[in-house]
Protein 1
Amino acid sequence: MLVEVLISFFLVVSGIFGLIGSLGLLKLTDTMQRLHAPTKATTLGVGGVLIASMLFMLLVKDHLSFHELMITLFLFLTAPISTLFIAQTHILMNLKRGDLPDTGREHSWSIYDDPPDQAPVGEENAKG
Amino acid sequence: MLKRIFPHPLLSRSLLLVWLMLVNKVTPGNVLLGGVLGILVPILTSPYWPGRPGLKRPFLTIPYIFIVLWDIVVASIQVARIVLFKPRNQIHSQWIVVPLDLTSPEAITVLAGTITMTPGTVSALLAADGGSLLVHCLHSDDPDDVRDEIKTRYEARLKEIFG
């Protein structure tokens, strides 16, 4: 009984956050603002379903499943990268250099400026 | 010699672990197959990942993961309230420039990923010399506060982990 209540709780929470994520897409107007909605939907929305699934496997089916942890891992690896792609494409296509704040350094942002030699170059640079 | 077989020992170990979790059953055959993958994949991908970064204090990653998970829950609720109850014209989105103290590409990647995964902030661009990060914030009245929180909460901890 208690187990079922707990599992339903996580399912309902994830449903609510998934719904709010989609509502966010509808309500927010700017592309950059809209990017925030899917990151939220994946983290708490999917997270809730995964916790519920793990609890169900562990407490009802009596065996431990690691697949949910793997889904979490792959989501955490892929979501920031796709978000970064969309953000950089949006900045490149729709924004001008003046729309962005200054880096506060000698070099400008990676999509406008070439990286200096022998400098620490992040993964984002290669993609930009 | 050992370095040529295991260009990234940590990656080899993670691949073996991920493989065992994917098949969800520990048998000698699966361990062997995971071991082969753990050796082959790092060798094949090592031209694209020339550095050999080590974690200076690997055990600090565990509290870091829990801090990030907790922040995701708290920030999700905050963002949900903004989406549901704030009128469109009162959402003040802005760009925030975070100057970085981290220098290793791996550490910066983890920081950018953390910023994106915590709701309310999305990392968008890196400066050409890797010295600052452009972050988009969904709603904030005090951008300096958000920047300081990223620096003290995540960057300082990553600095300890990566050394």
Protein 2
Amino acid sequence: MGEKEQEVEIVRLLKASNGYASGQRLSASLGVSRTAVWKHIEALRKMGYAIEASPSKGYRLLMGDARPFNGVELSTLLAGRSFGSEVHFFESVDSTNARAFELARSGAPEGAVVIAETQTKGKGRIGRKWESPAGTNLYISIILRPPVAPQGAAGLTFALAVAVAEAVSNRGLKPAVKWPNDILTGGRKTAGILLEMDSEPDRVNFVIAGIGVNLNMKKEFFPENIRETATSICEETGSPVDRAAFTADMLSSMERWYGVYLKEGIEPVLDAWKGFFRSTGKPVKVTFLDRVVEGVCRGVDSTGALLLERDGAIERVISGDVEAL
Amino acid sequence: MDIKDIKSIYKFLRETDIVEFELEGADGKVRIKRGNAYAVREAMPVEPLPPAEAPREVKKEDAAPAAKPDNIKVVTSPMVGTFYRSPSPEAPSFVEVGSVVKAAQTLCIIEAMKLMNEVECEFGGKIVSILVENGQPVEYGEPLFHVEVSK
């Protein structure tokens, strides 16, 4: 058991004991000295755990409202899961996707996640920035190794969009998807998903799914250029979100929808996705790299491509920014 | 004959076992030869085409000039999507005609439904032509680059 695993285990034991756990018991369970246990307790306190120590009774974890958000807590919550089987937690990274890419290249398994308190170069689509301040939101990338050809991988976009929308719904909101995979609440962007794939011509090596969810960010902290178009779950519901619990909940939705996609294909995924899509029959504006067009959205086809009606003809859109008019 | 015809021939050939194909018409000649590797196919469709009919894809300055045909490999698109030559609109292109590339170097990005696929070169060499314009849609198996493989 490494140092970090020992800390995860101590937190697990403290939570399980429902009261005091003696230093002796902890040291016996972990197979380390009581001094080592004490050092771990100190480290855990620095991570934000309120741990009370009594010379006669041992250690007790005080579970207040504020559950800490760190690698130990996430590992404890995600123990035994496939999505979240490995948690790589960083206080600050350039981009969780970039870090996950490196990990995947060096052989990290499917389900390994990279989570950061803050990103210095959070990535959006085609070089855009994802606002990633510390202490408030969720920035996570997960490594997927779907046994599909690159040609069939785009359906993953919809499976993950459904999963994130579901996690947002679980907070009592009614999210909508903006084609293909942004999550909006009250018409404002709440979460974004960016998939990056590494493939051979005939098979996918891995896909990194990067997800940013605005959880507790207050309106006044959004940069001015997105203040009116973005929001957070806390802004919408009025109650702060337990970030670690949200992460665990979202990962379990993702694991489920990923399973549906691999077993049953894109059809049931798109059916669920359509339940969150509100633009069918409505006028939309589509921004491509080199042009902007307007038309009426006619839903999506069986691959998920957006159907745009313009001058009586239907155009299939496979990439572009789609906004309601 | 224009680039669309060549694309259709190419697609047709992909579904068959034909490894070599030649077609001569009034307006030019096309010869396609396929290797065994999946995305990297040896091809030499560069008998001059009527420039007026294929203004976009086959630019004169982009066409493989004196390179030995068996040195030229084609990098094709792994999926249907949009072709991007740079990671963002402001960033410089991954490669230009004449760029010397190493194996595993990124050549372009193909995007479909916000899934970004970085297409890498599988061998070292020199880019002799770029067959698609930035931001344009590409089909599965569509040729993107001609690369002169280093010896």
Protein 3
Amino acid sequence: MMRDVIVIGCGGGGPVVAKELAERGLDVLVLEGGPRFPDPEREWSRLENDANNPITGYLRVGPSDRSRPAYPRSLPQDSFVWQVSGVGGTTLHYYGNCPRAPLGTFSGYAGADRDNYDRAHAFPFTYDDLLPYYEWVEATLPVQTAAMGTKEAKFFSGAEGIGLPVNTRKQPTQPSFRPQENAILQPQGTAGRVEDPVYPDAQGCTFCGHCFQGCSMPSRAPRNLKAKRSTDNSYVPMMLTADAWASGGRSAELIADAFVQKIHTTTALGGKPRATGVTYELPGGEKHRVEAKIVVLAAGAVESPRLWLNSKLPNQNDWVGRGFTDHHLDWIVGTFDERTESSKGASSSARADFPGYGGLENGGLPSGLQAFAETYSDSGIVGARKNASPATLQGADTIGRLVGRDLLEAMSDVNRVLNVLVLTDDDVERSNRVRLEPVSLADTNGTIPRVEVQHRKRSARTFRNREFLAGRAVQLLRAAGAKKVHRMDWPPLILHGQSTMRMGTSAADSVADEWAQARAVDGLYLADNSVLANGVGGANPTLTTQAIATRTAERIFTQHFGGEAWVRTSAPVCSIDDRITAAVIARGL
Amino acid sequence: MPSRPTLHAASDPPGRLDRRGFLATAAVVGGALVVAGGLPDEAEAASLVLDGFNGLAAFVVPGFDPYSVRQGVTTKRAGGVDNGAGEVVIKTLDRAIPAVVGETDLSVPGALAYALLLKSYALSVSPLRSIGPFSNAFANLTWQQKREVLIRLDAAPPLENTQITFAGNALITLAGFGAYTEGTAWDASQRRLTSLPVGWTLSKYQGVSNGHADLIGYYGGRTEVEA
């Protein structure tokens, strides 16, 4: 059977394309290599090792059967790629933060600070071109202004203390701070006010503090009314019920634990290859081949280039997998005498933006992840002779791993710390890349991916930005009243993997064109973080990926199926719409 | 001389992980095997691994367990060992790296490979102190000597530029993580906590909750922003 569209990957981007096209009546098949969690309230313990152990947890990159190994990745440097496979993908553990990309990351930007950005790798369209798609996604998820708990109040006091103004708009144009615009439903009723809230008395964020373990709250809420708008709670319920709420809609089909191993193409004499379908494997080894008019690759910044290369698709300019950006994250911890309630509430509801440099956001964590964050470093053990890391204290009391009595002291009360995550506006660099493991290590899905990040040799601008932001984070924490400040200098902890199949203005250094269609293969589009043109200026990438995926869906519909564009001429249905809720309940989703 | 067993991860086949891929690793692990006196039998291996990573757990989060006592840095409360941090590290490494090929056709799971490395580094830091009650020399060191072992591992990773380079840096991190999570207090088969995790007591973490009463409101009273 010939499908209209096959979407490979049910993470942050794939379901966006699937929902938009299912809403318009196309026959869409979504294939996800990881598990589906149909009943998270019962399935997810929300215990950190059970959830977040990157090898054995239920939120890992691996198959449903946790007795089987995780999918291996080759990491030839100190680093870890912290993604999640499964329906929802990495949005299952994301914080839901939805800043738009800074203006300077787009073509056509002429601001006075334009040279502060990675202009060589700007998005191949203007901010105004993408704006309607941002607004569409923001209304669909929906994106709202974050509520404030104790840790956010502490962050804001620090930001005020270092003289930052508050930003009351969607887009920062100067250094400033603000509550996050995030994809987390605002607390209503008893949510955020009691210890054991239950739907419908409680709606929206219950302040449980478990964003990173997967959002299953409020208890008893229908799936599309869970607080965090990870795609398993937003776009996936929409794509699976499109026939119920969209005139002419047709529900997408979803198959989980279906690992796509090959993209098939055909090539007419003298022409370009054209995608024709895929082969996927189910648990137990059963293989299936499916044909489609259009294939959308949305397997993530590591698996998308891997699948491309394992499928032996063309790579004439040698940019497949290259240009990996990751925001060169760092983590700064302040310890306080007073309570911060850092393990409670939505994990990150406050941020500060420094256009041209990146941003800072708070990061609340439970106990185990707090210890993880405080023991992961590229600078060695605190007080020891330093490694070769170029990072410096930037005003902190320590730099490096905390161990022994130092760790016991820093961990003496998880609710008296305030963490700041450094999100560096990092450059696209050719040498940072995903490729196939050259010594032919393979698992059942083909040669495994090798992720290479030369983190001690980042560009001068990337290094400058990270050091600047670390310094501002230290100042913010001190202004908030921290009695000690520890800089971790993380090795690559890749939570924001981006731009490995980048779109660009030049065919010489990009894999996809301005419409996210693969330059080398007709009928093949990209719809995950891999297609981002750059590091999004340090902004959390999911919203921009979802806006581009919406634009891509519209392009597919108009170019290949004779449809009309809709984003500028209609209003979106919100994922918490009553019609969707009714369908979710009726179908037991 | 009795033949040595081939060891694999406890419950996982190595899959198709290709022996050729571990050539660089093999040299290091092979070297560690030589320093450590060869590959132990399975019972010895289990003890070597457990002692090695309990020694690491005591280093990262000391308590009053025998490993902490041996290293000379203790506290008045239970620490990482009692939270099962060593076991968390072992399980994670074995799952992450199902098989590392040694100098011969022998293959070992990841935890044993790294336990052997800890042992060989310990012997180089203090051959004398390495002798003691524990089967892994690392666990017999003083806290300062353990620190020196881990500084050397940090500064000159033995498995650099191999598929598993990341795991060396992760040893301390995994031990810290294991010490402050639910650790071995979680009975996965029954899906329940069998006791209050030690790490939660240390960090005053209140545990899993459906919600908290920590809503203050909205900064500046703004519930939405301008476009």
Protein 4
Amino acid sequence: MSDIAVAKILDLKGLPCPMPVVKMSQEIGSVQVGEVIEVHTTDPGSLSDFPAWASTAGQEVLTSEQNNGVIKIFVKRLV
Amino acid sequence: MDETRKQELIKTLSSRLNQAMRMYLDNCTRCGTCIEACHAYASEPDIKYSPVGRAQNIRRLYEKYFKGAGKLAPWLSEAIEFDDAVMKKVYDTAYTCTGCRRCVTYCPFGIDTQQIQSLAKQLLIVADMEPKVLSMLADMSIAKGKNIDKTKGSFATAVSNLETEVLERWRSEAGAKAVPLDVQDANVLYIALAGKHSIIPAASIMNAAKEKWSLSYFEAVNFGAFVGNPQKTKEIADRIIQEATRLNVKEVVICECGTAYRVMKYMTGEHPFKVISFIELIARYLQEGRIKLDKAKLQGRKVTYHDPCQLARNGGVYEEPRYILSHLTDDFVEMTPTREDNWCCGGGGGLVAMGEKDFRMKSAKVKVDQFTATGAQVLSTACENCHTQLSDLSEHYKTGVKVEYLSDLVSKALVQE
Ligand code: SF4
Ligand code: SF4
């Protein structure tokens, strides 16, 4: 378990393409700069999609973890 | 709009004026044959959403800058100039066109409205007015290509975690990887989408067929094509081409994503490998007796099939899904109209990613009437975008029809001997 303080949890499990990244890009503005969103997904592709999105959007993926088929990705709002 | 932007737009318009495009723009007789062919007009009659109506602004801009009458005596023609108001109208008609090309099959002059809309989208990109969500997704795909080595490890862990769910559908031999990655000289490089629902059924089917296959690190969908940016379309496709070339695979097999199939098959040039859709691969396995299906799984439910526009009308894959369905059920019913005449689901061209739920639901009413008229309980299809739109329609109009991926139905009906 990560001990990162999170401001919001976003459940994106089972969504069709490309909704996980679309929802993430919409939700990042709902937390303050410096705060972290914890994303829950079941998409293997999101492990490369989210860092790629973050690099183009000026945000940061801090880390990710995988447990019982659920992928958790921690995204920090930088801008 | 400043003069520099105007000149850029004129230059872009000029760059797209090859013989075919000039023919499309010059030869429309306004006969109106195409009008009712568009699902958007057929569902909610508004001339601006008819094929000829959608092309009107581009035609008038072309007349203004490239035709004698528009240049010399604009008051005699319908010519208009590039300005913000005109570009707003172009946006409304371009990004509500799903690119289904149903209208093309109706035009007696072979005018390709989808090509005119692709030009319109390119102009909107130059005007910095394209839907930013589509550009964001295209940029993400390009960045993923550049940084893939950093995330290969976690992706590999995620796909190995899918093993139990793959084995529930097909028990592979002990020691065999349920979802193989990086297989040199594989027969098949399978290009999935991000979600596990596009990996698990395919993996179980290919394992059942004892295929030598490899899962791609990249997603099939090409948002460069959705947004209408040729350069980004190419960069996104190149990631897959390079991976396929590195692994020396015989075939690149595109998952149930219509646009991905059309882009890879027809818009990326010649390759040392073949490009086919996953539906064609399943049909081949059945034909060669490499997999067998149990019809009992769908017993008691009538099944119909929606031809995804980019796979069927724009990709020629009509027989294979029907052949697969003949192995899945004895209770199959065609929609009316069907095949090349099938109505678009109304969610293509990036509309699903853009949201646009209200427009999507209203403009595809004709699709709902079409599939509910079959009396089928199961609506199968072979495209993620169509699946999302059809599911939204079914829920919105409370039809009770269950939308299913063809690959999912196949993988659940596999007979393990
Ligand atoms: S391509 Fe499809 S959505 Fe676009 S105008 Fe033609 S029929 Fe309508
Ligand atoms: S059918 Fe062809 S010629 Fe007739 S209005 Fe439509 S685009 Fe123009």
